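2.7 Reproducibility. Because tokenized structures are sensitive to small changes in the input, we list the exact sequence used for ParA family protein, including any N-terminal residues retained from the expression construct. No trimming or masking was applied before prediction.
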Amino acid sequence: MAHVLAVANQKGGVAKTTSVASLGAALTELGRRVLLVDLDPQACLTFSLGLDPDTIELSVHDVLLGRLSAGIVVSTTADGTDLLPATIELAGSEAVLLSRTGREHALRLALADLLDDYDVILIDCPPSLGVLTINGLTAADEVIVPLQCETLSHRGVGQLLDTVQDVRRLTNAGLRVRGVLPTLFDARTAHSRAVLADVVARYHVDVLSPPIARSVRFAEAPGTGRSILATAGRSKGADAYRRHARAIAGLSTADEIPARRSPPPA
Ligand code: ADP
Ligand code: MG
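Resulting structure tokens (single pass, no recycling of outputs):
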């Protein structure tokens, strides 16, 4: 049975898509069977993994509207992860779904047939708290909240956690918050750390460690159709995502933590 994780934050530019692509590639490196779902009508995940959203014929839109089964629409990317791609048509799904009964469950039902084919399914949510994100949260076991630590970040987290509460009450009682993932992190500024501490104190959420540092290597990856695991595999950013992938896969992360063992006996 696949473990299903949604990556959500209604703010754009906080590295949701980057985190989904990087975690997906890192989990694939670990030998896990991974499916990525692009739930954003801007289709950035689809594009950044080398597919052209303007020429794709079948997309997650057809799946959400019940026209096609998800398995038919899945493509394999150069990173080796499978992808349920998006096109701009997905913007129209929102309106169609709103007129339907059970609209929040469309993705969960569509993925049900694929749960035995994958170990991990990662859902890239759009930057809104609309019906597409609710579909992502309804289909998920856990949600990861990428957070760029800047002034007023906490307000967005509060709204998202309210939405998670609604989803638990109405459509998915078992949804867990895996934690906040600090992204675009600048450890040199006390400000980033202060914002993070404030979010933890207010909302009692876990902070996933290590934070993902800001690095130009990330900006280069999407244009190549590969994730940073392929374009800058030895960078700190790639390694940070590898550690999160190990934790998601239920593997020990200890061997990658800098040695702090006591010296061998003399
Ligand atoms: P979202 O999906 O939340 O809108 P993206 O993943 O598209 O965010 O990231 C927004 C921008 O930030 C992209 O240009 C991406 O390449 C860049 N980016 C993501 N992570 C980092 C990082 N750690 N350092 C520098 N740039 C990053
Ligand atoms: Mg995105």
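The radius of gyration is 18 Å.
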